[in-house]
Design brief:
Elements (H helix, E strand, L loop, with lengths): L2 H17 L3 H12 L4 H7 L9 H25 L26 H15 L3 E2 L5 E3 H4 L19 E2 L6 E3 L5 H9 L4 E10 L10 E11 L4 H15 L5 E8 L2 E10 L16 E10 L1 H6 L8 E8 H9 L12 H4 L3
Parallel strand pairs: 1-5
Antiparallel strand pairs: 2-4, 3-4, 5-6, 6-10, 7-8, 8-9, 9-10
Helix pairs in contact: 1-2, 1-4, 2-4, 3-4, 5-10
Bound molecules: phenylalanine.
The site of phenylalanine has 11 residues, from strand 9 and strand 10.
Length: 337
């Protein structure tokens, strides 16, 4: 028995370990080389039969080799995937684990649905900034400095050295931006977030609007009625629509558009506050002052504009009773859309 013999055992062991394909192989190699009655231990057991001067050398070498083989076994074990027979068996008849699906937020769905109708009517989608100049949000839209909407009470103002800046209170300033950049004919819809200092079950400090603007040489109030009727019948099938005189500084004449209450059908309830009608959007013919502010000659052009609240539409369509549900991210609510 010589050092060569031990070296030979080591080489073979290392080769076999490197080629082991699973933990079961490793277990067999371990028994083969390190088992009680096997190769290395057998050598160690027989050291006492060796000449006295050779014993320490062979003993040390055998022990060192044993440790090396153990290390190699551990290293290889870490590289291998867990052995198959230790995995729980797979029951192929089990129903699959529930994978939660992502969904489009109800407000985005509603907004997309609204926009789709106007796209089919030939409108183009544009967007504008949520942080806006007060001059675009108010002045250019003919909302004069003493108008109550400009009160600190309703508007979020932002400090800026460039001039008065705020979080837009409606999507109407995008009308101004587009008209300043483009000549008619224009047919645009503008979806986006708007901000007002308001918070209760029907008001959120941030909500969504869709604005519409059409400008051309010959546009009449009948066009406005036609387009909005078509739109409302697309969203609320077969619903009764009414146009009611109203006022906005940037349209003249102005209307508010109502539909028959979707909750009570017109007999009067809490949602329609007993009137039998639900106010759905604001609209009107573009005020000549607004045309002047963007450099259009009011003698050349006519147009109509409208604006609607997406949350309100969504609430009425689905019978939701609290606007805050849209922004709490409760999956039990969102999962239903
Ligand atoms: N901007 C108005 C609002 O937020 C809505 C509106 C838009 C009315 C366009 C008329 C024309 O209340």
């Amino acid at each position: 028995m010589t050092e060569d013999e031990i070296e030979e055992i080591k080489k073979k062991a290392i080769f076999e370990i490197a080629n082991a394909l699973n933990r079961k192989d490793l277990e067999e190699i371990k028994i083969e080389y390190l088992g009680r009655k096997k190769r290395l231990n057998e050598i160690i057991r027989r050291i006492k039969d060796l000449p006295i001067d050779k014993r320490p050398l062979i003993g040390q070498l055998a022990n060192k080799t044993k440790r090396e083989i153990e290390e190699q076994l551990k290293r290889r074990e870490k590289e291998l995937p867990p052995s198959r027979y230790k995995l729980p068996s797979i029951d192929v008849t089990m129903p699959p684990a529930h994978l939660p699906y992502g969904r489009i937020h109800p407000i985005t769905q509603m907004s997309n649905q609204i926009i789709d109708v106007f796209i089919r009517l030939g409108f183009e989608i544009v967007e504008g900034p949520e942080v806006e100049y007060s001059s675009y949000n108010f002045d250019a839209l003919n909302i004069l400095p003493d108008h109550p909407a400009r009160d600190m009470h309703d508007t979020f103002y932002i400090e800026d050295s460039e001039g008065e800046v705020l979080l837009r209170t409606h999507t109407s300033p995008v009308q101004i931006r587009i008209m300043k950049e483009h000549k008619p004919p224009l047919r645009i819809v503008v979806p986006g977030k708007v901000y007002r200092r308001d918070a209760d079950i029907s008001h959120s400090p941030m909500f969504h609007q869709v604005e519409g603007l059409l400008v051309d040489n010959e546009v009449s109030f009948a066009d406005l009625k036609g387009v909005l009727n078509a739109f409302l019948h697309e969203i609320f099938k077969g619903v009764e629509v009414r146009f009611r005189p109203s006022f906005f500084p940037f349209t003249e004449p102005s209307v508010e558009v109502d539909i028959r209450c979707t909750v009570c059908g017109g007999t009067g309830c809490r949602v329609c506050k007993g009137t039998g009608w639900l106010e759905i959007l604001g609209a009107g013919m573009v005020d000549p002052e607004v045309f002047k502010n963007v450099g259009y000659d009011p003698e050349d052009y006519l147009g109509f504009a409208f604006g609607l609240g997406v949350e309100r539409l969504c609430i009425l369509k689905h019978g939701i009773d609290d606007i805050r549900l849209f922004f709490e991210n409760d999956l039990r609510f969102l999962d239903q859309f």
